[in-house]
C-alpha cells in the first residue's frame, strides 16, 4: 500500500487532534545555505515533513495578568518541546519507517546556524549542524514567517512549536502559502516587544529568502536582546530580579550581546553545548542562570509579549486565522508595566499591576485558607 501525505496527517492527529502536518520536496531547499541544508543531515532525503503542535492560548494568561509565570514555561516550552512535540514527530517517523522509508527526526536546536566545530573528516560540514525549522515549515506549506521571525500558521497564528522529519520517501508536496497572507506588517510585535528586539521596517536589512517562485521576508530580530529578555534579565519583563536586586538596570533594549553570549550568560548547558566564542573565550559558564532560577523557577519570563501575544491579538481581530472565535480577549486589561529602575529603587513590584479583584494585602486570608 502506498504511503500518502494524508496518512501522515492521520497519524499525527491520532496522537494530537490539533497537530498539523505539511510536506516539502527537497527541491524547495535549492536556495538553502550549504551549511544548513537538510542533505547535510540525511544525504538521501527526498522530502521534508513539518509537524505543528499548537501552544494553548490560555498558557499566556498567567503572565499577561502578571500573576502566574510557571504555566507558560511548563506547557508551552518544557513539556510541549520535550514531550508533546516529540510524541507527534516520533509517531509520524515510525509510520514512515513502517512503510520502509527512513525517517530522520531532527532535533530543533538553537541557534539556527551552520555548525562551528571541526569537521569529523575532510569534506564534511561542521557539526553541530542545524536546520532552520521555521523555514522548513514555510517550505512545507504550513504558513509564513511573520515580521517578528515567528512562524505564523493559518490555524493558530504564531502559537505553535515545530517538529521536522527528513525522509527518503517521495511524498506529494503541499502548496506554498502566499507571502503576506497572514503578516500585514502591522508592527504590533515590535511595539510590544519589551526587549526592543524586533526592528521597525526602516531599521536594518530584513532577511529575505526565495522558495520556488515566492519571496518571503522578515525582520532581522536581535536574538541577544530577545534571549536576555526571555530568560528574565530584562526589568521590563521580569519582576523577579528587580524585586531581589533593587535598582538592577541592564539596558537590554540597546544591548549588542549576541544570542550565544546571552545563552551562555543565562543558561548553563549552553557552555557545554557551544564552543568558546569571542564574547566568552573560555567555556566556563557564568552561573547566573542558577541565580535566576532560584528566584523564578522558570525561564520563559517574557511570555512572548510582542512576538506571540500582540501578534495573536491582531490576527484574531482581523479574523485571518481559523482559531479566532474565543469569548475572551487575549489581554482584556492593559498589559502591566514595570517602572524603570531609577524610579523604583525599592525593588517593589509595580503597584496596580494586578486586577482589582486580586488587589489585597499579601497576608490577607484567602477564601480557601
Ligand atoms: S504583529 Fe504579527 S502580523 Fe503584525 S507585523 Fe508582527 S508578525 Fe506581522
Ligand atoms: S520573546 Fe519577548 S523579547 Fe523575544 S522577540 Fe518575543 S516579545 Fe521580544
Measured as a percent range, the helix fraction is: 25-40%
pLDDT under 50 segments (min length 5)?
Answer: 347-360, 362-369
Q: Give the distinct bound molecules.
A: iron/sulfur cluster
> Quick check: average pLDDT?
84
Beta-strand percentage range: 5-15%
- What class, by secondary structure content? alpha+beta
- Tell me the major beta sheet: 4 strands, antiparallel
Report, as a whole number of angstroms, the end-to-end distance.
62 Å
Shape: globular
Rg measurement, Å:
21 Å
**Strand order within the widest beta sheet:** 1-2-6-3
Overall strand count: 8
Number of helices: 12
Order of helices and strands: HEHEHHEHEEEHEEHHHHHH
Structural summary, described in words:
The structure is a single chain. The chain is of the alpha+beta class. The protein has a domain at 8-178 and 214-218. Helix content is 30%, strand content 11%. The chain contains twelve helices and eight strands. The strands form three sheets. It has a four-stranded antiparallel β-sheet with strand order 1-2-6-3, with helices on both faces. A two-stranded antiparallel sheet has the order 4-5. A hairpin with a 2-residue loop joins strand 7 (207-211) and strand 8. Helix 7 runs parallel beside helix 9 (259-266). The longest helix is centred in the N-terminal third of the chain and has 29 residues, at 70-98. It is globular. The termini are far apart. Mean pLDDT is 84; it is low at 347-360 and 362-369. One iron/sulfur cluster (SF4) is lined by residues 193-195, 197-198, 221, 226, 229-230, 302, 304-307.
